[in-house]
Design goal:
single chain, 448 residues, alpha+beta, Peptidoglycan synthesis regulatory factor (PBP3), Domain 2, Beta-lactamase, 5-stranded antiparallel β-sheet, 12 helices, 36% helix
Length: 448
């Protein structure tokens, strides 16, 4: 019982310390530069930690970031065959005419491979090729747009709606920086997508109507012939319309760290390309200011849970299921990292298996939950047959069935008592003695 008392006190102290632990007011505040983008997000692709966020859930026009979804549907289609040929059509040229979209200059009837088509849509951002893909893979533009919105729902993009596969301006063609982050993260799991969006150049071999041609990326961060080249940038997708401003979804890797950055509605005018400059600044800030830190290991106990039905122990120690490693500022103070436990129950009955999940723990830094890890039992705990037997006996005698039996017995006893009382009253009446007044008895004697 002493161990059980100790465990209760330990749990109380842990909860109390969580409540009173000092927390910093705000995490990950950038310094030394400004971000002009109206919405943006920078996150670690290694841990999912969000280091920078601004208006991440505000609806924005995506411009050609829309083509990320277009290409994903191309690559995931049952029709996709990298070597299969697709020919440019008159209908596609009619659809793109007058829209202001960049075009490939493919001639009507000119054939390119489906892999070539992926490069023209994703790397060079040609609008006519996006329409060509939509009609081929979706049966029609409308059918393909329905597929786009269905995929958005599947991925949980609650702030996204598409009206066309190109990204042409439409009031109902919108998304959010957070949704772009989710979509781009998903897309990068596809090897072809990742390769294409990271290629600065691509050669389309001679076709049935033209010689070979070289395509160039619109993402200057991976093009070493531009002033915006950033050696650690690995790929991305650009977007631009007057209404959407300049947009960029990109990712960069350095020294074992990989980050994904989304900037939307950067200033569209002037010679300076803010989307490239500010993405680079955010990457440099992240690479220089943050590092992996093991916040908690899986070898030190986090808390204890009371155990019943065991004669060996009154409690079991709980541990992190696995070490918790996250991205934190280099100067992060360990005293501001708080572990808040959420146990599945107030106690657990033996037997307990080592590794059995008993609850979860939230890791909190600077008032933000930065992770959630399962808490597991650190040891096996055997159950006592005696205590289990006593439990079942107690459970049996405390069951609803037994309560009904108790009630019937009590009722029977009550009826018995009432019957006894009634019988006793009847006997008393039968034993009544006839009363003769004294004076009458004397007169009787005188008459004799």
């Amino acid at each position: 019982m002493l161990k059980k008392t100790f465990s209760i006190i330990f749990t109380f102290i842990l909860v109390f310390s969580v409540i009173l632990s000092p927390l910093t007011a705000q995490a990950y505040e950038i310094t030394g530069f400004n971000i002009t983008a109206k919405a943006g997000l920078l996150a670690s692709m290694d841990t999912g930690e969000i280091l920078y966020s601004n208006n991440a859930d505000e609806k924005m026009y995506p411009a050609s970031l829309t083509k990320i979804m277009t290409v994903i549907l191309m690559l995931e289609s049952e029709k996709y065959d990298p070597a299969g040929k697709i020919a440019m059509t008159k209908e596609v040229q009619r659809l793109v005419s007058g829209t202001g979209s960049a075009v490939s200059n493919l001639q009507i009837g000119e054939e390119i491979t489906q892999l070539d088509l992926v490069y023209t849509v994703l790397m060079s951002s040609f609008g006519d090729c996006a329409y060509l893909a939509a009609i081929y893979y979706g049966g029609s533009v409308e059918g393909f747009v329905d597929m786009m919105n269905a995929k958005a729902r599947e991925l949980g993009l609650t702030g996204t709606h598409y009206m066309n596969p190109v990204g042409l301006h439409d009031e109902q063609n919108y998304t959010t920086a957070r949704d772009v982050y989710t979509l781009f993260s998903y897309a990068l799991k596809n090897d072809t997508f990742k390769t294409v969006c990271g290629s600065p150049r691509y050669t389309i071999e001679a076709t049935n109507m033209s010689g070979s041609r070289i395509l160039s990326t619109t993402n200057f961060m991976i093009d070493n012939t531009t002033n915006y080249f950033y050696q650690y940038a690995k790929g991305g997708k650009t977007g631009y319309t007057d209404e959407a401003g300049r947009c960029l979804a990109s990712f960069a890797s350095y020294n074992g760290y990989t980050y994904l950055c989304v900037l939307m509605n950067c200033p569209p005018k002037g010679e300076k390309r803010y989307e490239f400059v500010e993405s680079t600044e955010l990457y440099r800030w992240a690479f220089n200011s943050f590092s992996f830190k093991e916040v908690a290991n899986s070898t030190d106990p986090v808390c204890e849970m009371p155990v019943e039905l065991s004669l060996d122990t009154d409690f079991v120690s709980l541990y992190f299921e696995k070490p918790f490693i996250t991205i934190l500022p280099n100067e992060a103070d360990d005293s501001t990292i708080v572990v808040k436990t959420h146990l599945n129950a107030e106690s657990v009955e033996a037997p307990v298996k080592k590794g059995e999940v008993m609850g979860t723990a939230e890791v909190i830094y600077a008032e933000q939950v930065i992770g959630k890890v399962n808490l597991v039992a650190g040891d096996n705990v055997k159950a006592s047959r005696l205590l289990i037997g006593l439990k079942y006996v107690k459970s049996f005698f405390g069951s609803v069935y037994m309560k009904i039996v108790y009630a019937l017995i009590a009722l029977a006893i009550l009826i018995f008592i009432l019957m006894v009382i009634r019988l006793n009253l009847a006997r008393i009446k039968k034993r009544r003695v006839k009363y003769i007044p004294y004076g009458k008895r004397k007169g009787d004697r005188n008459e004799h």
